[in-house]
């Protein structure tokens, strides 16, 4: 007969640390199983102690999840602050670009006006030369 291998110990790892739980070799009738989500992979099975006894490993998971949630809130807050800073920098750049565009339009208008004055002065000069010949 084939002998069943015990399931490998459950190990959870992440930026906040890792947790390891040894699963018993085979679940017995007085123990219940809990499925832990692995977010995209096959679910892990964790066997608890007999009903009514403390489940320290679940408490550790809850604490790890609390730390993870706190870290995610901190990361979210930092990213929100960075987003606000970048949005303000973008608005500042847009204001400066608008000012630069207005300045370019003003200088172009002034250049056009000066060009018209020059052409008028050149016509008057040509006319005066013809009158004095």
Write a structural description.
This protein is of the alpha+beta class. It has one helix at 56-131; strands spanning 10-14, 17-21, 33-36, 44-47.
Concise summary:
The protein is α+β, with helices and mostly antiparallel strands. The chain is built from 1 helix and 4 strands. The strands form 2 sheets. It has a two-stranded antiparallel sheet. A two-stranded antiparallel ribbon has the order 3-4.
Distance between the termini: 129 Å
How large, in whole angstroms, is the Cα Rg?
Answer: 39 Å
Specify the biggest β-sheet.
Answer: 2 strands, antiparallel
Strand order in the largest sheet: 1-2
Keywords summarizing the entry:
single chain; rod-shaped; 133 residues; two-stranded antiparallel ribbon; 14% strand; alpha+beta; two-stranded antiparallel sheet
List the helices and strands and how they pair.
Layout: E1 10-14, E2 17-21, E3 33-36, E4 44-47, H1 56-131
Antiparallel strand pairs: 1-2, 3-4
């Amino acid at each position: 007969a084939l002998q069943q291998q015990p399931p490998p110990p459950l190990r959870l790892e992440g930026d906040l640390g890792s947790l390891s739980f040894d699963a018993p070799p085979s679940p017995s009738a007085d123990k219940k199983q809990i499925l832990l989500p692995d977010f995209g992979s096959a679910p892990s099975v964790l066997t608890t102690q007999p009903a009514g006894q403390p489940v320290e490993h679940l408490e550790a998971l809850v604490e790890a999840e609390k730390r993870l949630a706190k870290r995610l809130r901190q990361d979210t807050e930092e990213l929100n602050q960075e987003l606000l800073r970048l949005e303000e920098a973008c608005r500042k750049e847009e204001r400066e670009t608008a000012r630069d565009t207005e300045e370019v339009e003003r200088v172009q208008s002034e250049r056009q006006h000066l060009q018209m004055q020059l052409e008028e002065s050149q016509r008057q000069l040509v006319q005066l030369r013809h009158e004095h010949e």
